[in-house]
C-alpha cells in the first residue's frame, strides 16, 4: 500500500521545513514527514532545504557560513504568508523533541555539501540515535558515500539513495545493502518497482502533487509518495 510523506512538512499549507508545516502534517495524519538537515559552522544541525538563504527574509549567503544564533534571526515564513512571520529555521533537536511526543515517521534528508560531505553523516545519525529513532526513520542523501558511512557505523538505520531511476543505481543499492531508492517520480515504471521489490528495496518517489501522477505512482506500486500536497495525495490514495 502506497503511503504519504509530507514533503518538507505539509508545505502546500504551511511554510516548508518549519515546525508549523510538521505540526500540520501530523494533524493531517500523514504517514511520515520528509525534511532536510544542514550542518552549520558552529556544529549545530538545522532544518532547512536551500544551500543559500536567499528565500529567507532579509538574508543572503551560504547556510554553512552561519552559526545557528544568526540564522535563527531570519524569518522563513513571512514570504509564505504574514501569518507565519515568526516562523524560524528549526533546530534539528526541536523537531526530534516534537516527534517524541507526536510520533510520525521521519524521512531525514542529509544535505551534504562540498565542505562537509565527509563529516556530516556521523553527527546527524548520532543525534537521531540520541532520540532512539532507528526504527522510526529513514535517512536519505544524494551522496552514496554518506549512506555507506552510515551503514558501516550505524547499521541499524535504514537508508535511501536519492538518485536517478537507472538500473545500475538500483543494483548499487542492492549491492550496498541500502533499504530504499528515492528517485524522481517521472522516471518510474512498474517493471522498475517490481525489480526493486524483488530485491527487497523500497521505492520512495518525489515530489508528486498532481492527481494523475499520484495515481500512476500508486498503480506502479511505489512504497512512498513524497508530496507537498498531502490533502490531494490522501484523496487519491484513499487515506
From TrEMBL:
Coiled coil: none
InterPro entries given in the database record: GP_PDE_dom (IPR030395), PLC-like_Pdiesterase_TIM-brl (IPR017946)
Gene Ontology molecular function terms on file: phosphoric diester hydrolase activity
GO BP: lipid metabolic process
Record domain GP-PDE: where: 2-237
Entry superkingdom: Bacteria
A Pfam family the protein falls into: GDPD
PROSITE patterns, per database record: GP_PDE
Protein name, per record: GP-PDE domain-containing protein
Organism: Fumia xinanensis
Taxonomic classification: Bacteria, Bacillati, Bacillota, Clostridia, Eubacteriales
Amino acid at each position: 500500500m502506497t503511503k504519504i510523506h509530507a514533503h518538507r512538512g505539509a508545505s502546500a499549507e504551511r511554510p516548508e521545513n518549519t515546525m508549523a508545516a510538521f505540526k500540520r502534517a501530523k494533524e493531517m495524519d500523514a504517514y511520515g514527514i520528509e525534511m532536510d538537515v544542514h550542518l552549520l559552522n558552529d556544529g549545530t544541525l538545522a532544518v532547512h532545504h536551500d544551500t543559500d538563504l536567499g528565500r529567507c527574509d532579509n538574508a543572503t549567503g551560504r547556510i554553512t557560513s552561519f552559526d545557528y544564533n544568526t540564522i535563527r534571526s531570519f524569518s522563513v515564513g513571512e514570504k509564505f504568508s504574514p501569518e507565519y512571520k515568526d516562523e524560524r529555521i528549526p533546530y534539528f533537536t526541536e523537531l526530534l523533541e516534537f516527534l517524541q511526543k507526536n510520533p510520525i515517521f521521519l524521512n531525514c534528508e542529509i544535505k551534504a555539501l562540498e565542505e562537509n560531505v565527509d563529516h556530516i553523516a556521523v553527527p546527524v545519525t548520532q543525534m537521531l540515535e540520541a532520540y532512539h529513532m532507528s526504527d522510526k526513520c529513514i535517512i536519505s542523501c544524494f551522496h552514496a558515500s554518506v549512506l555507506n558511512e552510515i551503514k558501516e557505523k550505524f547499521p541499524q538505520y535504514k537508508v535511501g539513495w536519492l538518485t536517478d531511476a537507472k538500473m545500475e543505481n538500483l543494483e548499487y543499492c542492492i549491492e550496498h545493502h541500502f533499504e530504499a531508492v528515492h528517485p524522481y517520480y517521472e522516471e518510474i515504471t512498474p517493471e522498475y518497482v517490481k525489480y526493486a521489490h524483488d530485491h527487497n528495496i523500497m521505492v520512495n518517489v518525489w515530489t508528486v502533487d498532481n492527481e494523475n501522477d499520484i495515481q500512476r505512482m500508486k498503480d506502479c506500486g511505489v512504497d512512498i509518495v513524497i508530496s507537498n500536497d498531502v490533502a490531494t495525495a490522501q484523496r487519491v490514495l484513499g487515506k
